Amino acid sequence: MASAVLCDLDGVVWLAGVELPGAAEAVARLRRAGLAVGFLTNNSSLTVAEYLRRLEKIGVPAAPEELLTSAMAAATVLAQELRPGARVLACAGPGVWEALEGRGFEVVPEGPCEAVVVGWHQDFDFSRLARASAAVRAGARFMATNLDPTYPGPDGLLPGNGSLVAAVATASGGTPEVAGKPEPPTVALVRLRFGDHGVMVGDRPSTDGALAAALGWPFALVVSEATVSSDEPADHGAAWVAASLAELVDPLVVALRPGARGPGVSP
Is residue 138 one of the residues assigned to a domain? Predict the structure, then answer.
């Protein structure tokens, strides 16, 4: 299996769906060098088809197997422990609904249910908060796709899923399990899909960098609005730091080529 370059989306490939300068050509150059390129996002709001259309629109054709989301990680965890057909309340966007239905669950907007999954969505409101927290108080399993407090938008940082999860946790008194970066469910999915050798490229040391550490992969940091926020550690531990994915192509190709001995990379 070829070494992988696993790219976060928001802040690395695009910003609010708009290509970051040079990202499409950077992906093409990595592929021409014989590296496997994958895309991993904690944003669970979109379906797989929607993500692939967005990538195609910016000039990055991708196959479904090249994409991993926190929605997939959450659905995988629940599928390992809940019966087929179990009722799962999705306080989340279409991406979570799709992932849960793909695993054979009955996805519902309110209880009773066996689990609640909270994923980022823009129409989170008091009604959704009330239904999700009531189900958790009634004993439903509480799953968060991720705990990112913010994510980068075109005009600065926006509230992330961690903000929504905190509201449900406060209202319910529950403590969520977490499926997305950098937690073990995502580590397991990455290994299954992309193998044991690669580099994680991201803009958040707290999630992308921590995932790289959990995988035993080096971390390549793309500096974004999220990187310099107060949420992120100053000691990022990155093997490479750059202003864009495009600037990382040459060092990554050198480090990941067969027989290379780059920072933390084994052939």
Answer: yes
User: Residue 225, Cβ neighbours under 10 Å: how many?
Assistant: 18
The tokens for 195 are 């193998």
Catalytic residue among 10, 148, 203, 208: 10
Contacts of 234 (CB under 8 A, 6+ apart): none
Domain that holds residue 113: 70-178
Backbone angles phi, psi at 85, to 5 degrees: 85, 0
Question: Over 50: is that where the pLDDT of 257 sits?
Answer: yes
Q: Is residue 10 annotated as part of the catalytic site, yes or no?
A: yes
Residue 244 C-beta-side C-alpha neighbours within 13 Å:
13
Residue 126 sits in a domain whose CATH number is 3.40.50.1000
Low-confidence winner among 140-154, 232-246, 250-264 (lowest mean pLDDT):
250-264
Regarding whether 96 and 147 lie in a shared domain, the answer is yes
Rounded CA-CA distance 85/103 in Å is: 9
N-terminal to C-terminal alpha carbon distance within the chain: 11
Q: Is the pLDDT of residue 228 over 90?
A: no
Whether residue 100 is found in the same domain as residue 154 = yes
Domain count, the chain: 2
Residue 153, judged by CB atoms within 10 A of its CB (0-12, 13-18, 19+), counts as: middle
Contact 109, 131 (CB under 8 A): yes
pTM for the whole thing?
0.91
Q: Is 155 a catalytic residue?
A: no
Q: What is the pLDDT of residues 77-135, one digit of tens each?
A: 999 999 999 999 999 999 999 999 999 999 999 999 999 999 999 999 999 999 999 99
Residue 224 carries which DSSP code? -
Tokens at residue 213, please?
């550490």
